[in-house]
Amino acid sequence: MLDLQSNGHSGLIDPTTISGPVPPAFPLSANNLDKVVEYRHNVEGQNSVVARRGLPRGSHICYIDTYIPASVSTWSSIQTSKTTHIEVPSGIVYINHSCVPSIDIEVYPPNSDGTYVNGVCGELRVVADRDLEAGAELTFFYPSTEYISPRPFDCLCGADIGVCIGRQEGAHFLQNDVLGKYFVNKHIKDLIVKRDSEGRAKVSLNWNT
Ligand SMILES: C[S@@+](CC[C@H](N)C(=O)[O-])C[C@H]1O[C@@H](n2cnc3c(N)ncnc32)[C@H](O)[C@@H]1O
């Protein structure tokens, strides 16, 4: 775990505030990514992360052991439980969203004191049904970790109409048949169950009034 005071997240530049490429703020050695991935700029001038070599479907990429615990969700954070988030000062922060993701990010919930078992709060894996070829972009499905994204965006992943979700604003805004097509973390599943039960309660209340 990194200390926010001594390291900070200050080198990270919000990609929506710039008009051209800016160098990534973090070395790929953090979270042991340097052997497997490299940085690229995508067509929109944003940073992205691509595979340095081919990786078989389902294979382990890295554990998330470099992180800063965060109590609020930001454009760059990853949600690890119903109430907790992490900032990731490593190449992981430059992994874009796609509606046809090439990797899954499985997060581990924190202990009650906010720490994570063995200081590891998640794992990156190649998706289960497709190999990742050298040079292919690493992308994950942001709603698989984020329940409500604080800064929604119109998705430019390029997936076909009917496959691309269009606007990425978090799992809360997606239908279950869409979410059901993806690897989704347990805290998201739990929050969706809560959403649906509250929805039913509200409908029932409306019926009674
Ligand atoms: C954590 S950053 C990802 C890295 C970012 N490309 C960069 O250069 O810093 C998340 C932001 O990247 C952009 N982004 C990621 N995936 C996107 C997508 N599929 N379509 C459009 N924008 C995307 C959005 O602005 C989003 O808020």
UniProtKB/TrEMBL annotation:
Residues 34-143 form the SET domain. PROSITE patterns: SET. Coiled coil: none annotated. It holds the Pfam family SET. SUPFAM superfamilies: SET domain (SSF82199). It comes from the Eukaryota. PANTHER family: HISTONE-LYSINE N-METHYLTRANSFERASE-RELATED (PTHR12350), SET DOMAIN-CONTAINING PROTEIN (PTHR12350:SF19). This is SET domain-containing protein. It comes from Arthrobotrys conoides.
